[in-house]
Amino acid sequence: MSNYKKAFIWILVPLVYGFLVSKLMIITPFFSQIVFGLFWFWVGMTFANLKISNVKSFLFGNSIWIVSFLLFVWQFLLLDDSNRNMFIAKISQYYMSSFIWFGSQLSSAFSNVLNGTTITLLAYFGMFLVFSFGFITGNIKNK
């Protein structure tokens, strides 16, 4: 299997994981955050090693993240509850669900009121940062 096919499979893992966790909830959020944070850092490093330009590799590695994030913004920030498509809303939340613990901890550090949309946006931000740090680390190791 080519490196690009393997890389595509790696970026699908958060979506599959998010779906399974939402249905089964077999792993505690803290443990999930640690394991998935390390995994996502490694995925970022892996994408830095692809034999394409850094910009293309970074965008490829974040392609599903970008689509999922845009779907979330559309469904939860641009539409009201009555116009929301529940299937799209669920899918957009599955992708970053492994980073929900990060989002909730960061949100509670700045506010006594926990807002689901804010927590999810912070989780997306955390996911992006972890991938980015992994990507930068992978580029430094390649030099």
UniProtKB/TrEMBL annotation:
UniProt entry keywords in alphabetical sequence: Membrane, Transmembrane, Transmembrane helix
Ranges that cross the membrane: 7-27, 33-50, 57-77, 121-140
Superkingdom in the source lineage: Bacteria
UniProt protein name: Uncharacterized protein
Originating species: Salibacterium salarium
